[in-house]
Give the backbone structure.
Amino acid sequence: MTEQEHAQAIAKLNDQHRALPGVGWVVTPGLRAMGEHTLVQAMAAVKAFSDFSEDNDPYGERDFGAFEIDGQRMFWKIDYYDLNLAMASPDAADPAVTRRVLTLMLAEEY
């Protein structure tokens, strides 16, 4: 698999992960404190996010995004862990050895 094919495989898995709000997602306390309505909007924004560019996606893995809701800047980031969530995944393109964790946060919590 070429480097580009590897990145494309990771991006596809990341897109699938973003499509399932709540499964393997972590929401920071600051965002939770903004209330259920804002949280629902933020989760929908992550799910719909498509504004990938060289600036926010230099490796083509679609693992980070930033957006605003009601003037509040928010980030989401996907990290790749081994199946025990103890260390980094040996291969983020292989779902058999990778658990994805998406963190949704206020920009100020980064």
Remarks:
- The chain is about 30% helix and 25% strand.
- Residues 3-109 form one domain.
- The chain has a mean pLDDT of 96.
- Residues 3-18 form the longest helix (16 residues).
